[in-house]
Design goal:
The protein has 251 residues and is mainly β. The protein is built from 1 helix and 13 strands. The strands form 3 sheets. Strands 1, 2, 3, 4, 5 and 6 form a 6-stranded antiparallel β-sheet that branches. Strand 9 and strand 10 form a beta hairpin. The radius of gyration is 22 Å and the shape is elongated.
């Protein structure tokens, strides 16, 4: 049997391995934010998204430590951590509680799809403490920037009173039914998007009669591949405008 040189073997393995999307290290962002002696609620910006980019938050952790006190405080405070779009009226994007019971682990989360923040938005952390004060607390986060060249599908209010989109079951292990109604015959587009704005699947594009309609998404992309677990957005676009609905995939 002819022997294969190690360098040639490594090249063959690299060619045989499936292609995996890589994030450019230059696009990665991360940081930590510390609080001390917290009573009630306190909030602070973590990151402001630059113009022309979106930011995808993928990892977040909260610990009862600080840079000067690395030993977790022995305490009974209950902490609620919220990640918001900052501003005069913050918009909650994620919320969880720490130490609701004595054996609860520290807050730590990894999103497969991520939480998307739009250009110029402020990503804010808010800590609410019950039975405080909380001696120390540190929030650490990481994610990446993507060029904002695609249409945002972060949900907003419907464009009109008759424009609505429902998804069930949601979360879904198999197929998700998307239901909507039209007041008149018109051209519509129904698609599924990833949280960074990439179109995953086009379910329908063309004219539809007035009335109730239902389309099924089987959790596959336009190439027929199963999508990863995580959060997606179904979008209905009509002559009246467009509306979106969060759709979670679990297996």
């Amino acid at each position: 049997m002819r022997r294969i040189a190690p360098s040639a073997l490594m090249m063959l393995l690299a060619l045989a391995a499936p292609a995996v999307a890589q994030v450019n290290p230059a696009d990665m962002r991360s940081g930590c934010l510390s609080f001390s002696s917290v009573v009630g609620i306190i909030s602070s910006p973590m990151f402001v998204v630059p113009s022309g980019y979106r930011f995808v938050l993928t990892d977040l952790a909260f610990a009862r430590v600080s840079g000067t006190s690395p030993i977790p405080a022995s305490s009974t405070e209950v902490v609620r951590l919220t990640v918001n779009v900052g501003g005069p009226t913050p918009v909650v994007r994620w919320v969880a509680g720490d130490k609701l019971t004595a054996t609860d682990p520290p807050l730590q989360v990894h999103w497969n799809s991520g939480l998307v923040f739009e250009p110029n938005q402020s990503m804010e952390a808010a800590v609410t403490v019950l039975n405080g004060p909380l001696p120390f607390g540190t929030v650490c986060w990481s994610g990446y920037l993507v060029v904002a060249t695609t249409t945002s599908v972060v949900p907003g209010p419907p464009a009109g009173p008759d424009l609505a989109l429902e998804a069930a079951p949601n979360p879904a292990r198999e197929s998700t039914d998307l239901r909507f109604s039209l007041a008149r015959k018109q051209r519509v587009t129904v698609g599924v998007f990833a949280v960074d704005g990439r179109r995953v699947r086009t379910l329908y594009r063309g004219p539809l009669e007035a009335g109730e309609h239902r389309l099924a998404w089987d959790g596959r992309d336009d190439a027929g591949r199963q999508v990863a677990n995580g959060l997606y957005f179904a979008e209905l676009e009509t002559a009246e405008g467009r509306t979106t609905r969060r759709v979670a995939r679990v297996r």
